[in-house]
């Protein structure tokens, strides 16, 4: 099997990581593209001593850490206000901590693998993750709309959201209900399942909401690779079912981290 064939199944998940790390579909995909270009240009330098997924992320981390592919080149992202806000927040939080949080909580790497990816001692990883969570939770709070038709999952999400110090504005189980709740009480964050109770789509519900006002969205799906092809406008933040509490926590923190409407939490 060629290296390309070995790496292909992992690309959607690398896109998820890149987008979560940068807060932008365009920026995240640009880092993934730079990673693939580096591998094609020098395949002999690809880490062969580890499994392909770990080697792929290691190459991405090298691109991110060494050059960040020129922060002054917007790569089509347009130098948005969102990026300016992110830079201001990044000045107050260690990027390495955020990487460790996403790699462990969202991407599911072990502490040992994460240490390899961010090039620190294994003992440092848990401290980095704790630092990231502490800093992010102090910075942000939001009012959250949950769009989820499975009662147990909806209750679980509500509990996680409230335990993080955020408020739940409502729980919707259909597209129409989601739009109505959003219009009635505008949320600062939306958690949206893909398939809803009446066979309507959470994606369509979100499109309807975003047509009225801007709000960060985290999609929840059992099939993330179907939404991360790189071929069309796609979610920036994505949670895979079944999810862990830590995954939801990391995704919420990252989505709010890049949101210009987020209210700083009280000290």
UniProtKB/TrEMBL annotation:
Provenance organism: Sphingomonas spermidinifaciens
GO biological process: phosphorelay signal transduction system
Protein name according to UniProt: Response regulator
Domain of life: Bacteria
CDD domains registered for this protein in UniProt: REC_PhyR
In-chain residues carrying the UniProt-annotated modification 4-aspartylphosphate: 193
InterPro entries attached to this UniProt entry: Bact_response_regulator, CheY-like_superfamily, PhyR_sigma2, PhyR_sigma4, Sig_resp-reg_PhyR, Sig_transdc_resp-reg_receiver
PANTHER family (UniProt xref): PROTEIN PILH, STRESS RESPONSE REGULATOR PROTEIN 1
Keywords: Phosphoprotein
Chain ranges of the Response regulatory domain: 143-256
């Amino acid at each position: 099997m060629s290296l390309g064939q070995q790496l292909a199944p992992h690309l959607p998940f690398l896109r998820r990581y890149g987008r979560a790390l940068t807060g932008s579909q365009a920026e995240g995909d640009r880092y993934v593209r730079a990673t693939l270009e580096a591998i094609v240009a020098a395949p002999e330098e690809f880490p062969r001593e580890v499994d392909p997924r770990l080697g792929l992320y290691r190459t991405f981390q090298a691109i991110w850490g060494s050059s960040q592919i020129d922060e002054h080149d917007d790569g089509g992202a347009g130098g948005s206000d969102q990026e300016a806000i992110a830079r201001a927040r990044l000045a107050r939080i260690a990027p390495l901590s955020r990487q460790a949080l996403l790699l462990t909580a969202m991407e599911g790497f072990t502490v040992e693998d994460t240490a390899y990816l961010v090039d620190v001692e294994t003992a440092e990883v848990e401290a980095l993750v704790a630092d990231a969570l502490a800093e992010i939770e102090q910075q942000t709070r939001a009012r959250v709309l949950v769009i989820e038709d499975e009662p147990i999952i909806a209750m679980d999400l509500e509990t996680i959201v409230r335990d993080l110090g955020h408020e739940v504005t409502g729980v919707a189980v259909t597209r129409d209900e989601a739009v109505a709740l959003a219009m009635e009480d505008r949320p600062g964050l939306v958690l949206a399942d893909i398939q809803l109770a009446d066979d309507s789509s959470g994606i369509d519900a979100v499109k309807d909401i975003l047509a009225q006002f801007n709000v960060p969205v985290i999609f929840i799906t059992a099939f993330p690779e179907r939404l991360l092809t790189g071929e069309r406008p796609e979610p920036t933040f994505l949670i895979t079912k079944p999810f862990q509490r830590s995954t939801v926590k990391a995704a919420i923190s990252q989505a709010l981290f890049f949101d210009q409407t987020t209210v700083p939490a009280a000290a």
